[in-house]
Specification:
Elements: E1 3-8, H1 12-27, E2 31-32, E3 41-46, H2 51-63, E4 72-77, H3 78-83, H4 86-90, E5 94-98, H5 106-114, E6 120-122, E7 143-147, E8 149-150, H6 161-164, E9 169-170, H7 173-185, E10 190-194, H8 214-223, E11 231-235, H9 244-252, E12 259-261, H10 269-274, H11 281-292, E13 299-306, H12 313-326, E14 330-335, H13 353-376, E15 382-391, E16 396-400, E17 406-410, E18 419-427, E19 432-436
Parallel strand pairs: 1-2, 1-3, 3-4, 4-5, 5-6, 7-10, 10-11, 12-13, 13-14, 17-19
Antiparallel strand pairs: 8-9, 15-16, 15-18, 16-17, 18-19
Helix pairs in contact: 8-9, 12-13
Bound molecules: iron/sulfur cluster.
């Protein structure tokens, strides 16, 4: 039996792709191992959203170069799609290079490798393929990802995804609902709908005259009614396609979690324009107002890029004021980094790394104070927690609320996968601590 090791970099889409790749390999008789040293086939499922992530992959390949005679190396995902056959020049010991839009051809590529081909590539950006496979081997037995849409048509000027994942292609309502029902029957209680831009979900079998976002709102309503599913989340949303109907759908059904991740990237309309985000600060804030007027309290999280070409001190201040106005529960903030093939390469990038670091720190510190305030509001509340794991170092269980807050608590017994009520007793900037309510 052949052995394989896979390491995943990047977002949930990549994590879920790896689950599909693992399932495909297991179905072909491969055995998964925990260490690259023990594997005959070593795969890296890569991310190229930032330069750092890309460098990490090449560092890993370099690290294992000495094993090139005994192991087969494969590069999957965004770096594979972006760099293509150039990877063979940078790392000649690599035998497989395949982008995510070619994974459905993975079984054929594996046969080629097994029968002695030295170099195999899968780099076509198939405009139909959504890589649905019944072989997915999910890592977590309680919560599962379901991809509903692949690719992205938005072309934000800093983003490499449209070049690495190809154009948008959605699944049908029926296939998503069937997968959700199967997962429920298998004991899963939480589902996360995935896509680079889930709001753009437009089922191939739906009426093309329906307004933008309606299909996604309907999908949320229908997945929220699958018997046995207690929580539904989704990631990631683009503000332009985030229509009121989506907020209404969430408000109608508590199975749809009280949390929305809505990446803003910048609080300055001028920077948003240069980023080609297709919305203004005011339009974004209108969507926030919808979410703040729901009957249930929704938490909001976001992504921020600092140091985008042309960002002025005033633009940065606009981002800080937007953080204060929205009061996010968490943000993921990054320094802008140039990515190949993207329109932003044409913009003059005169902001130094040092200055980008200063701006990042300002944003993080500003947000930290907001999070301390936001989390303090939970002290004294009793929250329902889906228990996700046990931290042996602290002897505490760790779970998530519907608002995606992490709560730790001590309790005897085996609680993983269960829903428990926990009274919050303490709050920090990143997590809450509490006591089990019997
Ligand atoms: S919406 Fe913009 S940032 Fe998101 S994946 Fe598409 S191009 Fe990239």
């Amino acid at each position: 039996m052949k052995t394989f090791y896979i390491e995943t970099f990047g977002c949930q889409m990549n994590a879920h792709d790896s689950e599909k790749v693992v399932g495909t390999l297991l179905s072909r008789g491969y055995q998964q191992v925990e260490e690259p040293d023990d594997a005959e086939l070593v795969l890296y499922n890569t991310c190229s959203i930032r330069d750092k992530a890309e460098q990490k992959v090449f560092a890993r390949l370099q690290e294992f170069k000495k094993h090139s005679k005994t192991k087969t190396f494969g590069v999957l995902g965004c770096v594979a799609q972006q760099e293509g056959e150039k990877i063979f020049d940078r790392a000649p010991h690599v035998s497989l290079v395949a982008g995510s839009a070619s994974y459905s051809k993975l079984p054929e590529m594996l046969v080629q490798l097994e029968t002695g081909d030295k170099r195999v590539t899968g780099l076509s950006l198939d405009t139909e393929d959504t890589f649905e496979t019944p072989m997915t081997r999910r890592d977590n037995p309680y919560k599962a990802y379901i991809t509903i849409i692949e690719g992205c048509d938005k072309n934000c000027s800093y983003c490499v995804v449209p070049y690495t994942r190809g154009p948008e292609r959605s699944r049908t309502f029926a296939s998503v609902l069937e997968e959700a029902a199967k997962l429920s029957a298998a004991g899963y209680t939480e589902i996360q709908l995935l896509g680079q831009n889930v709001n753009s979900f437009r089922a191939p079998d739906s009426d093309p005259s329906r307004p933008l976002g309606s299909d996604f709102a309907e999908l949320l309503r229908r997945v929220g009614q699958v018997p046995g599913i207690r929580r539904v989340r989704f990631m990631t949303s683009h503000p332009r396609d985030f229509v009121r109907d989506i907020v209404d759908a969430i408000d109608e059904n508590p199975v749809l979690c009280n949390h929305v991740h809505l990446p803003v990237q910048s609080g300055s309309t001028a920077v948003l324009k240069a980023m080609q985000r297709q919305y203004t600060r005011d339009e974004y804030l209108r969507r926030i107002d919808w979410m703040k007027s729901t009957r249930r309290e929704l938490t909001l999280t976001s992504d921020i890029i600092v140091g985008f070409p042309g960002e002025t001190e005033q633009d940065l201040q606009d981002t800080l004021s937007l953080l204060s106005e929205v009061e996010y529960d968490a943000i993921f903030a990054f320094k802008y980094s140039k990515r190949p093939n993207t329109p932003a390469l044409a913009l003059e990038d005169h902001i130094t790394e040092e200055e980008k670091s200063r701006r990042l720190l300002m944003v993080q510190e500003h947000q930290r104070a907001i999070q301390i305030r936001r989390n303090a509001r939970h002290v004294g509340r009793t929250e329902e927690v889906m228990v996700e794991g046990f931290n042996k170092a602290t002897n505490h269980w760790l779970g998530k609320t519907t608002q995606l807050k992490t709560i730790t608590f001590a309790a005897p017994g085996e609680l993983a996968g269960e829903y428990r009520r926990v009274m919050v007793t303490r709050a920090g900037p990143a997590a809450l601590a509490g006591e089990l309510v019997q």
